[in-house]
Specification:
- The chain has helices at residues 8-15, 221-235, 239-252, 257-269, 273-286, 292-303, 307-320, 326-338, 342-355, 363-374, 378-391, 398-416, and strands at residues 78-85, 96-101, 104-110, 116-120, 169-174, 178-180, 182-184, 195-203.
- The chain is α+β, with helices and mostly antiparallel strands and 422 residues long.
- The radius of gyration is 25 Å and the shape is globular.
Length: 422
């Protein structure tokens, strides 16, 4: 039986698995949730020709030819509205507004502190760092140093959306643990009223874990001020000052789970692993239902190859929210492979793939391929490894995966036996 070894090269590829796969342009931070975006702005007058003075001809111009006037370029389409929870309150955190076209989601913008949103479609005003797309979600601009799942090239970088582009498209709000109403964008025109009304978020049954911390709502005023100041400092790349403000916030309010989490991200970004681990642990202690620190801890444990801890941490995260975090299933599957529990590894990988329909974590296909190879399902293993290479042909671990695929195909050929001559 072939044994697929999980060498350091595999682990290296594992830790880069959270980077999304570019997809054909669909709009905003990519989304796919994404999104991978074409980047580049359409010319306002593509290929148009003009005549300097109407009614006159210019040298070389055939007077019998019909004059050509500048073509009107695509006009911007603006969207505004409001997001509310099903109990009538405003969201307690920023909510991503996604445009979904042909089943492919792409973030377009965020709500403000009152739940309002306003943006121009296709201008990528959402710089994604959302835990539903990866295991990184922080209000400090993705400062964990592991990258975000944004496929955006930055605000204002996307192609301008036309009325024709909106055929079959919908708008929705995206917040882990909640189901959103949808607004149809089909038939929307440039000069239409931009206000699409209120989008309601409905809590999903069976979800206990959320990307907002309940303890944050009880933080005293001074602690909140330090937290908010830290966010501004971090976005300005003043990390040392941001760290001091976060430390002040948790000193004033030790149960400030969100502040502990952001402090952990800053430590992790600077590769201060023990301090990051302590901060994430404090975050989980302060609010056991705040899911973000679980996912970060799983990543730290995986780097150190502490597979039992990875499995335990991700199991808790999956129980808190089994719907929104394919990254948790990814880490859980890898941990179970290394713990030689291949049945559990296969189950986790398949669940992750099922919810990750946009292949935001393509590494799940490779992980499932490794599991199936261990179970001597060489056909299934080859299929999934090929899928991974198709999704990310230039992945840093692509050569290693191709070697594994060659082994799998060799075993498959051997299992098939020699063909009988006709």
């Amino acid at each position: 039986m072939m044994i697929m070894r999980l060498a350091p090269m595999f682990l290296t590829g594992l830790l880069m698995a959270q980077q999304p796969t570019p997809t054909p342009t669909t709009g905003g931070g990519g989304n796919a949730g994404a999104g991978g975006n074409a980047g580049g702005v359409a010319s306002p007058n593509p290929g148009s020709t003009t005549t300097p003075f109407p009614g006159r001809t210019t040298p070389g111009q055939n007077p019998n030819e019909r004059m050509q006037f500048p073509e009107m370029g695509p006009r911007p389409i603006f969207i505004s509205g409001k997001v509310m929870m099903d109990d009538g309150t405003a969201p307690t955190e920023q909510v991503v507004i996604e445009r979904i076209c042909n089943g492919s989601p792409r973030p377009e913008g965020y709500t403000d502190s009152k739940g309002n949103f306003s943006f121009e479609l296709g201008r990528n005003q959402a710089t994604m760092a959302d835990a539903s797309y990866s295991n990184v979600d922080d209000s400090f601009g993705g400062l964990s140093g592991r990258g975000t799942n944004s496929r955006s090239n930055g605000p204002g970088s996307g192609p301008q959306i036309t009325e024709r582009d909106l055929m079959g498209c919908e708008l929705r709000a995206a917040l882990a643990g909640y189901r959103s109403d949808v607004v149809s964008l089909s038939g929307r025109r440039t000069l239409d009223n931009p206000n699409v009304g209120t989008i309601i978020l409905h809590r999903r049954a069976g979800v206990e874990g959320y990307t907002t911390s309940g303890t944050s709502l009880m933080a005293p005023k001074d602690a909140r001020k330090s937290y908010e100041k830290a966010a501004k400092l971090a976005k300005g790349k003043k990390l040392a000052e941001a760290q001091k403000e976060l430390e002040n916030a948790v000193a004033l309010y030790p149960k400030y789970s969100a502040a502990w989490y952001e402090l952990g991200l800053l430590h992790e970004r600077e590769n201060r692993v023990p301090q990051a681990t302590e901060a994430y642990s404090k975050s989980m202690e302060a609010d056991a239902k705040f899911i973000k620190p679980y996912l970060q801890m799983a990543g730290l444990y995986a780097r150190e190859q502490k597979w039992k801890e990875v499995a335990e941490t991700t199991e808790r995260a999956i129980k808190l929210n089994p719907y929104d975090f394919p990254g948790a299933y990814f880490y859980h599957s890898v941990a179970k492979i290394n713990l030689q529990d291949f049945e559990a590894a296969e189950s986790a990988a398949r669940e992750g793939i099922k919810m990750d329909s946009q292949h935001r974590i393509p590494k799940l296909a490779h992980v499932l391929g490794v599991v199936l190879a261990q179970k001597q399902d060489f056909s299934g293993a080859a299929e999934n490894m090929k899928l991974y290479l198709k999704l990310v042909p230039n992945a840093q671990d692509a050569d290693n995966v191709r070697k594994q695929l060659a082994q799998v195909e060799g075993n498959l050929a051997q299992a098939s036996g020699p063909k009988t001559a006709q």
